[in-house]
Write a structure and sequence with these properties.
The protein is mainly alpha-helical. It has 16 helices and seven strands. Helix 2 packs antiparallel against helix 4 and helix 4 crosses helix 6. It starts with a strand and ends with a helix.
Length: 364
């Protein structure tokens, strides 16, 4: 049941002439399959048009997709996720918009979906994203009592990469810095020291910056993250404060306005390409941040809590990218620091202000 260039074969129809002024059109899910609709028209063309139009809205895929996009399950997603889902849903409706819901309960629908996924097999993550959006859509249909089909069940993922072990080395970052303007590098530097995703850094406001940490509700998981402000990170924030003027946003583009995700993404990709760097994404700066947290004295369990990884993942990544000497030096320094702290009587711990710190706390 593969497709021609207009799309996959999903329906079968036939027209029966009753008399000069009556044609009956029948729509089946496949040749010899179940009857989906029947319509009558004065001409063959009218009958065919009516029988296809007669598919109810509860079975029409494009209509249901639009209903999903208008639902709170979709509108409550962050803007970047909505844009990504919209793009994937268009691909789905382009390929399967002429299918009806009963067809997705057939076992052989998995063949069509797998073949559709495999059209993007040269980019495994993108291929799996196509199946994921179908799964999300049909879970919504189930929750709304519209359809209980599970067309993606049993279709295995083909993407196996674990990018948590990929980082930007100091050498990579310096090569990038040589060809990248400061307003882009400030975003990169914050990513290296905070471990936040690109969208969260672009949306970072000064009200999120406290004396010793950043407090921000992440756009992906809708949970608060509290990455610490190390001394190196404070230097970057001081530079950001110099260039942000009276803006409430920490990082701005060359026009003095907040970055958009697409605007920054395209600029970052362009300068990365100019620097001759390939195989590394912006998201990989999180691994760089992990190494920086460790070298600043944070334990594996603390780092795992900051970036949302497992302790095992943090430990494996550190063994790869932090040489044994640096690994031990950081551990010895932390132990000695803790020993000195215990010798001070009356130590009150964290002296951070409980209220939101302004730029003066950052640049002090």
């Amino acid at each position: 049941m593969r497709s021609n260039k207009q799309g996959m074969h999903a329906v079968y129809h036939k027209v029966v002439k009753r008399n000069e002024n009556q044609f009956d059109a029948y729509l089946y899910d496949k040749k010899g399959g179940s009857l989906l609709n029947k319509a009558t028209g004065r001409t063959k063309e009218i009958a065919l048009k009516l029988v296809k139009r007669a598919v109810s809205d509860t079975q029409d895929i494009p209509t249901l997709v639009e209903r999903y996009k208008a639902s709170p399950e979709f509108t409550n997603l962050n803007i970047l996720t909505q844009a990504n889902y919209t793009r994937l849903l268009k691909k789905f409706t382009d390929a399967f918009g002429h299918y009806t819901l009963p067809m997705f309960s057939r076992l052989d629908i998995k063949v069509d979906l797998a073949e559709w996924r495999d059209e993007s097999q040269h980019t495994p993550k993108a291929a799996d994203d196509k199946i994921q959006i179908v799964s999300i859509f049909f879970k919504w249909l189930l929750a709304r009592g519209i359809c209980d089909a599970q067309p993606t069940r049993g279709i295995a993922s083909i993407h196996r990469a674990d990018r948590s072990h990929i980082i930007w080395t100091p050498e990579d970052i310096e090569v990038l810095r040589d060809s990248t303007p400061p307003n882009v590098m400030r975003v990169v530097d914050l990513a290296c020291h905070l471990g936040l995703r690109m969208g969260d850094i672009l949306n970072l406001k000064w009200e999120n910056v406290r004396a010793t940490k950043v407090a921000i509700k992440t756009s992906k998981r809708k949970r608060f993250a509290f990455p610490p402000i190390t001394e190196e990170c404070r230097k970057v924030l001081q530079e950001c404060a110099t260039y942000s003027g009276h803006s409430e946003y920490v990082v701005l583009n060359g026009y003095g306005n907040p970055w958009t995700a697409n605007g920054f993404g395209s600029r970052f990709y362009r300068f990365k390409k100019m620097a001759g760097i390939s195989g590394k994404h912006f998201h990989d700066f999180r691994g760089t941040a992990v190494t920086n947290f460790y070298k600043s004295g944070y334990r594996n369990s603390e780092i795992a809590a900051i970036v949302g990884w497992s302790e095992d993942t943090v430990e494996t990544m550190l063994k790869i990218y932090v040489d044994t000497s640096s690994f031990l030096d950081a551990a010895f320094e932390r132990v000695n620091s803790e020993a000195k702290t215990q010798n001070f009587e009356g130590h009150n711990g964290d002296t951070e202000h409980t209220d939101t710190a302004h730029r003066s706390l950052v640049i002090a």
